[in-house]
Write a structure and sequence with these properties.
Radius of gyration: 16 Å
Strand content: 25-35%
Number of strands: 8
Helix content: 40-55%
Shape: globular
Largest sheet: 6 strands, antiparallel
Order of helices and strands: EEHEEHHEEHEEHH
Number of helices: 6
Amino acid sequence: MGEYRHNIDAKGRMIIPARFRDELGDRFIITRGLDGCLRTYTIQQWEAVFEQLKKLPSTKRETRMYIHMLTSKAAECELDSQGRVLLPSPLVKEAAIEKECVVVGVADHVEIWAGERWDSYYSEASASFEDVAEQLTEFLI
């Protein structure tokens, strides 16, 4: 849980908030997420995601596209001694991260957003929060 703002440095390194470091461990996977963010998974979570991907029907074009988008830029990353991660440049470009990053805890994973992109997404989501909650009520009970 939580939202933390940090900057990416000139070398592409970003601080992972201390709250998430213990849960992520020293090595973890960062890949393309939905809505323009990056998703971060523990190694164990990634293995579970990968197992689910293998169950999708590979004869469907949409399946192949989704798997390609999720795995092609996925990278195993690790923390340095100062709690930073070097974000791979293709992922930085994918998420449009220039300086400010927002690191968000989301249920079973961590997301990394470009600051402006997160602010825009959050504003849009906030405007429809109650309507969305009403539509999802049957799944939340």
